[in-house]
Amino acid sequence: MPHYDLVIVGTGSGNSILDARFADRKVAIVEKGVFGGTCLNVGCIPTKMFVHPADLASSPAPAGRLGVDLELRNVRWREIRDRIFGRIDAIAEGGRRYRIEHEDNANVTVYEGEARFTGYKKLTVRLADGEETLTADQFVLAAGGRATVPEIPGLADVDYHTSDTVMRIDELPRRVVILGSGFVSAEFAHVFASFGVDVTVVARSGALLRREDEDISRRFTELASRRFDVRLNRRAVKARRTPEGVALDLEGPGGAETVEGDLLLVATGRRPNSDLLDVAATGISTLPSGHVVVDEYQRTEVDGIYALGDLSSPYELKHVANHEARVVQHNLLHPDDPVASDHRFVPHAVFTSPQIASVGLTERDAAARGLRYVTATQEYAGIAYGWAMEDETGFAKLLADPSTGQLLGAHIIGAQAPTLIQPLIQAMSFGLDAASMARGQYWIHPAMPELVENALLALPLDD
Ligand SMILES: Cc1cc2nc3c(=O)[nH]c(=O)nc-3n(C[C@H](O)[C@H](O)[C@H](O)COP(=O)(O)OP(=O)(O)OC[C@H]3O[C@@H](n4cnc5c(N)ncnc54)[C@H](O)[C@@H]3O)c2cc1C
Ligand SMILES: NC(=O)c1ccc[n+]([C@@H]2O[C@H](COP(=O)([O-])OP(=O)(O)OC[C@H]3O[C@@H](n4cnc5c(N)ncnc54)[C@H](O)[C@@H]3O)[C@@H](O)[C@H]2O)c1
């Protein structure tokens, strides 16, 4: 039974831990799928590489409002797909070869197979040609999560897709039905609709992206309903095969109805892989959500076992997994001087149309916590760059503590929202108050960040 100083499970963010400082340790990396994990292969990166051409394809409508007549003549789906995966697959394979072949990794053994704990600090890997059981002083569990598929009668018998498969299809479908109304749904609805596909979105609740601040979610739902066939407050009761593809029988406020598509995308969330890894067998407990329990140093309850990323983090975001991987790396190298993860101001962005970005508390959160807060909303339509774009729908909404001026939350829907929000994340992270931020620096005129400047100035802070 080979024994290691360190075993890492998962080559998403887990793969970034090893560097020259680990050269004197005997290390194993275990990966059951493709090197690079979710973000690189089936997540953040390919989706955004589809979003960019989708943004271009959807530009005739906004351009037309400005007097520029553009025409979308064709979408060469296979070319788009192959450009994206031509880059990504090569990066994934390069990462794999680096770990297996490069002299930098002379101390590293790669096990390509599925790992599961079979005892205390005992990990069994199912390899192509049998099993190997490894023990180690330390483990890093970075096994991520997987798409969940709800139990809907008939669903198992239809050819549905998840985000794992939908980006590799051979032909663009004519009609897509998307079940779910979170991040994946919002991003793929935009991509497909921009490429000329009829999109139906089926949502359980009364709004799309309902975890966003209510004003953002409401605005997005309004705008999405103009672009897609949005069915709110619907329960999917049955899935059926049809000659063209798939039908979903729904129940909703108006009774029973059916939506049909050539392709069904199930986008109903993800769960951590803690069950398949059988973390309980080594004495690690999980939350009801399946997330591995860790402390602020990313330590599990078992001495020497750390966990990070989607396996243990409710955020399920790559920048959080990366941050936690850096924390684990530091704590492995400096056990006597550990650092804690900083989850105070975790931002996110949804790369749909319009783009959405958010950090900190929503108004719902602030009210639920009984905080004293003020808000300010600045429309894109009220800044010069917004006039240039003829933007009538975007806005930034800020929440602040009126007595200190500290920002509590920031939410933006509109062009470049993920970029515009970054100075607000910075202000919150470093404790810069709204008035100092607004007037302590120049804001380039007439650039888009004037949206943020004006929103800051509009906050009704105490004198
Ligand atoms: C469609 C989509 C779009 C996304 N877009 C964004 C975005 O724009 N921005 C953002 O911040 N986040 C985004 N995310 C989320 C982001 O991809 C994840 O938060 C991130 O990849 C998690 O990293 P991780 O290292 O924790 O896990 P992963 O990257 O999932 O890595 C886990 C690795 O462990 C391997 N593994 C699992 N179990 C075992 C086992 N038992 N044995 C061996 N190996 C195992 C897996 O094969 C995988 O390679 C997106 C996710 C999806 C699905
Ligand atoms: N831009 C980004 O950062 C980005 C993009 C895509 C995905 N992600 C990450 O990937 C994760 C997964 O994304 P997602 O959109 O699948 O999850 P999500 O949690 O954002 O949304 C899931 C949706 O499915 C619905 N749902 C759940 N169970 C259902 C059921 N039984 N029937 C009908 N609807 C149901 C929920 O109400 C919700 O609308 C997210 O947590 C997110 O962090 C991030």
From TrEMBL:
GO terms for molecular function: nucleotide binding; oxidoreductase activity, acting on a sulfur group of donors, NAD(P) as acceptor. This is Mycothione reductase. SUPFAM superfamilies: FAD/NAD(P)-binding domain, FAD/NAD-linked reductases, dimerisation (C-terminal) domain. Binds 1 FAD per subunit. NAD(+) binds at residues 180-187, 269. The keyword Secreted does not apply. Gene3D superfamilies: 3.30.390.30, FAD/NAD(P)-binding domain (3.50.50.60). Signal peptide: none annotated. Keywords: Disulfide bond, FAD, Flavoprotein, NAD, NADP, Nucleotide-binding, Oxidoreductase, Redox-active center. Disulfide bonds join 39-44.
